Amino acid sequence: MSSPYTNRGLLGLGWAELETEDDDGSRLQRVSSAWQPLFTRDPMDPAVQEALIVLPYAAEKSGQFDVALHLYQEAVNTFTRTQKQLRQRSPSLRSGRLRDAILDEDSAALLHTRAMAELYASHSFQAHIQNYRDLKRLQLALAQRDGSTQLQAQLGQLADQEIEIIENQLAQMAQDQLARLTQYIIDARLGLLRNYKRAQNSPLLRANPEAAPQ
Fold this sequence. Notes:
By secondary structure, the protein is mostly helical. The chain has 9 helices and no strands.
């Protein structure tokens, strides 16, 4: 089962293991075991992203520089791919498609990330969505009955205000996620540089030259 709550739980479990004593040298293995399920889940989930950037750091602190090098490169690849996907999908947040999806109650047409799912479920966000739907339907009903054009225009303006709030909230969240991914990419690349020289003589790097920083 995958949800924002189970993912956070696994992230917290890994952090708890990371903060324990490492008398027998098994701490990294315990952290890896706790976080392993996260690495197969949606990389747009903040908990997944945090695990991806912290695990190689844990390997680095444990002196396993070849492992850290490999994990940092995996993190760069995942973050770069996720960032590209988010950038491709973000324009739909300010389009007629978004408005149609809200009116038609077509949740599949909305941009989905774990963080956005929480926003969609929030009371204030749902209130703006319902206000927009109600205003647009009132506007349409009035037009079908040849009602006041002035009132129709007023209803349309109020609906536009509601959808602009929705669009701004979604766009800000997408922007925040892109900024976080950019920082994680920077952190991972710095990790690659730190560990490359340390790992040059390791068996892993000799056997896998492609593990060098990209």
